[in-house]
Design brief:
Elements (H helix, E strand, L loop, with lengths): L8 H8 L5 E6 L3 E8 L6 E9 L6 H4 L4 H20 L4 E6 L1 H5 L3 H12 L3 E3 L2 H15 L7 E5 L2 E5 L9 E3 L6
Parallel strand pairs: 1-4, 4-5
Antiparallel strand pairs: 1-2, 2-3, 6-7, 7-8
Organism: Hankyongella ginsenosidimutans
InterPro entries: ATPase_NBD, GppA/Ppx_hydrolase, Ppx_GppA_N
GO molecular function: pyrophosphatase activity
């Protein structure tokens, strides 16, 4: 008999699909992505996974501002994602913004526009958090992974060392800015 964490296959399948779906939205320098999951534990079931290439960070390193056309595309994508999450019955929608919004002079205004148009509350996460979440994503698929997880965003590197140490020994490049 096949076993999954000490329980039979039917119980494992039921555990993976239990509960209401949750959505995670990542507003990155290059793309805006939403993944909807159901279930708990290391490998929840993926119900929906979509990404739009918006290039929000285009020019942030040069002008210090978000690209206007990319911002509009990101806003339209976020409005669509908010509607989809609602229609899918998501009980929790977590939305994070990373390097481009964090570093842009008009990042706070973009966050206001997102809230006004979509109702979503974007949380700006630090480069360290971004790298840690990436490492945790690796660990969810490969629990024994040991190495470095890196993020290249808005022309900067952030990384985490020793994934098996629960990302506790993180570091960032000396030229990276929060």
């Amino acid at each position: 008999m096949s076993r999954f964490f000490g329980i039979g296959p039917a119980a494992a399948r039921d555990a993976a699909t239990a509960g209401a779906p949750v959505a995670i939205i990542d507003v990155g320098s290059n793309s805006v992505r939403m993944v909807v999951y159901r279930g708990h534990g290391r490998m929840p079931a993926v119900l929906f996974n979509e990404k739009t290439m918006c290039a929000l960070g285009l020019g942030v390193a040069i002008s210090g501002r978000l690209d206007p056309d990319a911002s509009e595309m990101a806003l339209k994508t976020l409005k669509r994602f908010a509607l989809l999450a609602r229609e899918m019955g998501c009980t929790d929608v977590s939305a994070v913004a990373t390097a481009a919004v964090r570093q842009a002079a008009d990042g706070p205004r973009f966050i206001e526009r997102v809230r006004e148009r979509t109702g979503l509350r974007l949380e700006i996460i630090s480069g360290e958090q971004e790298a840690e979440y990436s490492a945790l994503g690796v660990l969810s698929g490969i629990p024994s992974a040991d190495g470095v997880a890196g993020i290249w965003a808005a022309a900067r590197w952030s990384w985490r060392g020793s994934a098996t140490a629960a990302c506790s020994s993180g570091c960032r490049s000396p030229w990276a800015r929060s």
